[in-house]
Amino acid sequence: MADRYEIRYAAVGGQGIITAGALLVDIAVEKENKYAIESPTYTASVRGGPTKVDVIISDEKIVFPQASAIDFMVCTFQKPFDLYKSRLKDDAIVVVDSNLVKDLGDTKNWKLYKVPIINETKKQLGNVVLTSVVTLSMTQKLTNVIDFKNMVDHVKHWAPKDFLELNLKAIEVGRELV
Question: Which of 79, 95, 109, 167 makes the best surface tag, with the fewest CB within 10 Å?
């Protein structure tokens, strides 16, 4: 990982994408001993409206807390993609929902993954809110910005006891998708 790694998750409100950013920051700080911040953005209609969260992870203190050269993005809906694709590096890793993000425009030199994130989350897990853990798992696999074991340990600690197995299954789903 570079000294500073920038991640953007974009979706519509209610898909759990803000939670994915919070989990990523917690793991980076608590388990990886790195500096990390999250900056969520909501539109006026929180549920169903475009939303994003930017996460910056660094080996050094974060002086400028705004994402300006995004290394990795996951997006699950067209409107947030259109709104929030700015600031992606030319060589960014980009994961989009293949059913819900159709118009990509100029993809520069992105390493692009088109996967049915929402459909598979619903089909295999039964709840779109688990997109948060699916997204976290995809991020770990594609970037190694956090360690796999640290991610699993944190999810085990964080997930409600009655939903632990479902959250662990969400990790598997995320890894299988990419």
Answer: 109
What would the DSSP string read from start to end of the chain? --SEEEEEEEEETTSSHHHHHHHHHHHHHHTT--EEEEEEEE-SSTTTSEEEEEEEEESS--SS-S--SEEEEEE-SHHHHHHH-TTEEEEEEEEEETTT-------TT-EEEEE-HHHHHHHHHS-GGGHHHHHHHHHHHHH-SS-HHHHHHHHHHHS-GGGHHHHHHHHHHHHHH-
Nearest alpha carbon to residue 7 among 142, 147, 99, 101? 142
Please report where in the chains the tokens 């608590």 appear, as a residue: 30
